[in-house]
């Protein structure tokens, strides 16, 4: 991947995304044990997690619908302040009546990933920090940074214990660090220039109910398709796939750790490959024609007879499966109106999150007969349907950098007819 050219705003957004997902990665590791240590039972801990996820989705929908009018930077600074407050509340109290609102408003992520409006608004701002030609490369680098930062955060969650700090105090130190990250984030977002905002009359122009007007048709179709893809992906989330390998082949914990270290490493490689492939073949072609074979491989995982073959097929699948992430983000931002990018990113993000949340509950019962591999077959079939529908509906809609320049008019030589 060629080195992306970024403005100062771009580097600030990368720093903000990296430090934020570092915090998410750390909190996701300690949040459950910490709440259990406060005396909350499993059902209550689960309710807090659900509140955090639901609150993040609701905040994303509400704030991205108005961010382009009231100011993207203002919304991000406010979100960072809420994040800081949530970290302090969790560190200071064991009252459920305070913890639940803090989880809802402060994007306390139990998944280690963005669950609030930060990600959607950063996706809307990134196109202003680079050129159309380099936009996909920047999105690829952005996803790589957040992926590595989340992994580093998960590792950092164990630092207090390695330093000999007691368990309860160590958890609170992580939460205080999370609050400090919110303060740093507020400073980074406040330092952004006005260039990340919607410029000109478009900033105050008419909007639909969810913040989109002229792009409504495109956003509705993309949101529906992305929801289908995410619903299918919910059948093969990492936890379920690991459980299937344990049931089907008896793989122990250390073996599962090795398998999924490999899958995550190859997923990072696919981020790096996305930009050069997209430059050569186009964004939509890259989205569809790398995703399609990866989904065929996904459906093949339970059909091979031995563990080494199943692992090899799964690894091959992950080498291709993530190329559509930065290309999908880049394509979405390219084909919607610039003044509606925040709302479009928020709508598609919420559609993906909501659809993914439903699938695991449906997938888990199918593991009763692991030899059938039904989660892989269902996910593969639905994802292939998504790829084909995406190609059919959007193959004529190209981002600006892929429009061919019109042919130059031929100038007749003197004394000849044109």
Description:
The protein is mainly alpha-helical and 418 residues long. The chain has two domains: 1-196, MFS general substrate transporter like domains (Growth Hormone, Chain: A), CATH 1.20.1250.20; 214-396, Growth Hormone, Chain: A. The protein has helices at 8-37, 42-70, 72-92, 96-105, 117-125, 135-156, 159-162, 167-190, 216-233, 238-249, 253-281, 283-300, 307-321, 324-335, 341-363, 374-394. The protein is globular, with a radius of gyration of 23 Å.
* CATH level-3 fold name of the largest domain: Growth Hormone, Chain: A
Strand content: under 5%
CATH class of the largest domain: Mainly Alpha
Tally of separate helices: 16
Basic shape: globular
Going by CATH, the architecture of the largest domain would be Up-down Bundle
Number of domains: 2
> Which percent range fits the helix content?
over 70%
Structural class, by secondary structure, is: mainly alpha
- SSE topology string: HHHHHHHHHHHHHHHH
């Amino acid at each position: 991947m060629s080195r992306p050219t970024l403005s100062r705003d771009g580097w600030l957004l990368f720093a903000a995304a990296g430090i934020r997902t570092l915090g998410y990665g750390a909190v996701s590791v300690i949040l459950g044990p910490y709440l259990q240590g406060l005396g909350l039972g499993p059902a209550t801990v689960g309710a807090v997690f659900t509140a955090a996820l639901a609150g993040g989705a609701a905040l994303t929908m509400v704030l991205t619908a108005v961010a382009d009018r009231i100011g993207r930077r203002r919304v991000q600074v406010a979100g960072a302040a809420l994040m800081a407050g949530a970290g302090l509340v969790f560190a200071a109290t064991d009252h459920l009546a305070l913890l639940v609102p803090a989880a809802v408003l402060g994007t306390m992520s139990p998944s280690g990933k963005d669950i609030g409006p930060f990600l959607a608004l950063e996706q809307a701002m990134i196109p202003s920090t680079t050129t159309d030609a380099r936009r996909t490369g920047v999105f690829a680098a952005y996803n790589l940074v957040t992926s590595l930062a989340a992994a580093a955060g998960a590792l950092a969650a164990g630092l207090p214990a390695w330093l000999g700090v007691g368990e309860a105090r160590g958890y609170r130190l992580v939460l205080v660090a999370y609050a400090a990250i919110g303060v740093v984030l507020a400073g980074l977002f406040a330092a952004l220039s006005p260039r990340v905002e919607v410029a000109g009359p478009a900033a105050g122009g008419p909007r639909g109910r969810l913040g989109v007007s002229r792009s409504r048709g495109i956003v509705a179709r993309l949101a529906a398709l992305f929801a289908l893809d995410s619903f299918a992906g919910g059948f093969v989330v990492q936890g379920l796939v690991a459980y299937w390998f344990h049931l089907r082949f008896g793989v122990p914990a250390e073996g599962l750790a090795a398998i999924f270290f490999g899958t995550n490493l190859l997923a990072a490689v696919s981020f790096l490959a996305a930009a050069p492939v997209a430059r050569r073949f186009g964004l939509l072609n890259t989205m569809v024609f790398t995703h399609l074979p990866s989904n065929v491989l996904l459906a093949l995982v339970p059909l091979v007879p031995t563990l080494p073959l199943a692992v090899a097929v799964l690894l091959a699948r992950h080498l291709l499966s993530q190329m559509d992430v930065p290309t999908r983000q880049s394509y979405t931002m390219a084909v919607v109106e610039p003044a509606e990018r925040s709302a479009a990113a928020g709508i598609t993000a919420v559609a993906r999150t909501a659809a993914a949340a439903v699938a695991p509950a449906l997938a888990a019962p199918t593991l009763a007969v692991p030899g059938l591999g039904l989660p892989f077959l269902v996910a593969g079939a639905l994802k292939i349907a998504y790829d084909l529908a995406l190609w059919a509906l959007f193959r004529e809609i190209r981002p600006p950098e892929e429009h061919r320049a019109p042919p130059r008019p031929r100038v007749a030589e003197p004394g000849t007819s044109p």
